[in-house]
Amino acid sequence: MSENKQFIKDVNENDVKFSVIIPAHNEEKYIGGCLESIAKAAQLYNNQVEVIVVLNRCTDKTEEIAKSYNCVTLINEDKNLSKIRNAGAALAKGKILITIDADTRMSEHLLSEVEKHLASNQYIGGGVNGNFERVSLGIIVSTMLLIVPLLFKYGLISVGIFWCYRKDFQAINGFNEKMLMAEDADFAKRLKQLGKTNGKKYGTIKKGMITSCRRFDHYGDWILLKRPSMILAYLKGNNQKAANEAYYDDQAR
């Protein structure tokens, strides 16, 4: 563990620059790596970073690990990632909000890149791209099978990790709670639209993260070629059965 692992907690709102929100459902295998990456990125911002872990129906050691890093924690029972993230954002004190998944690690320079992009006044916010922890032909094909139709529906956007000013997150009412899948693409599209009304661009920070391949490890690298119905579920966005399988009920995560 990092010597600088402790994030700030219970401080004045004016002291917080970044609020990092992590939805977490039984993430004991991954969340330590995620928090460690945030701690490294936060070293340039001593006592200016809070991390909010939304504990979603956890039955493992996720809460214990989060509290060891002095994270803000709250309990949430929803099977809806939009509601889970919005619940975390409602507690946020930081001027800048960042969302990250528990099985993702941010780069050491991500927070400084976010600050630089927003301070330029050219960007409304944006997303992050990066790498999977491993690559195969099946993963590439499955990823493209999902990205291409989402591109036609939502336009050219990046997801992964989101970043924006809290006021702009609030201006678009956060994540759409009617959507159970592809809520991230919907959020990106609406943030991009807000930017256009203010003469700002939607930005992408490159090589800013590494994310796990746990779904490919479990379902197989060719999963979306074998199950095109999942692609349709992502495009529709409100299929509870598919969402439960993809995110909420699979204990082999």
Short description:
The chain has 253 residues and is an alpha/beta fold. The protein is built from 11 helices and 10 strands.
Explain how this protein is built:
- It is a single chain.
- With 253 residues, the chain is of the alpha/beta class.
- 42% of the residues lie in helices and 19% in strands.
- The strands form two sheets. Strands 3-2-1-4-8-6-9 form a seven-stranded mixed sheet, with helices on both faces. It has a three-stranded mixed sheet with strand order 5-10-7.
- α2 links the parallel β2 and β3 (72-76).
- The longest helix is centred in the middle third of the chain and has 18 residues, at 137-154.
- It is globular and about 50 Å long.
- The mean pLDDT is 93.
DSSP summary: helix tally: 11
Roughly how many Å is the radius of gyration?
17 Å
Query: Reading side by side through the largest sheet, how are the strands ordered?
Result: 3-2-1-4-8-6-9
Largest sheet, in brief, is: 7 strands, mixed
Secondary-structure element pattern, one letter each: EHEHEHEEHEEHEHHEEHHHH
Uncertain residue segments? none
Net shape: globular
Distance between the termini: 23 Å
Question: Which bin fits the share of residues in helices?
Answer: 40-55%
- The total beta strand count reads 10
Please report which band the strand proportion falls in: under 5%, 5-15%, 15-25%, 25-35%, 35-45% or over 45%.
Answer: 15-25%
pLDDT averaged over residues? 93
- Which structural category fits the helices and strands? alpha/beta
